[in-house]
Specification:
about 55% helix; about 70 residues
């Protein structure tokens, strides 16, 4: 299924860093696979760890940026 969402530039750079890290370990991954792995990791957390992880994620304005 396809979807779209907004990410801060710093988090997109983190995804690229993780892709490089995976490649250094001999694992080729796509952005969507990293996101899905993150979801699996979150799903496996106890409630306190999940709540802490979610509190570390800043809220951002959703939607497309205004056209110039």
């Amino acid at each position: 299924m396809r979807d779209s969402f907004t990410l801060p530039k710093t988090e997109l750079l983190q995804i690229n860093d993780m892709k490089k890290r995976a490649m250094a370990l001999g694992v080729e991954v796509k952005k969507s696979e990293l996101i899905r792995a993150g979801l699996q990791a979150l799903a496996g957390m106890a409630d306190t760890a999940f709540k802490k992880a979610m509190s570390n994620v800043p809220t951002i304005k959703t939607g497309r940026p205004a056209k110039d």
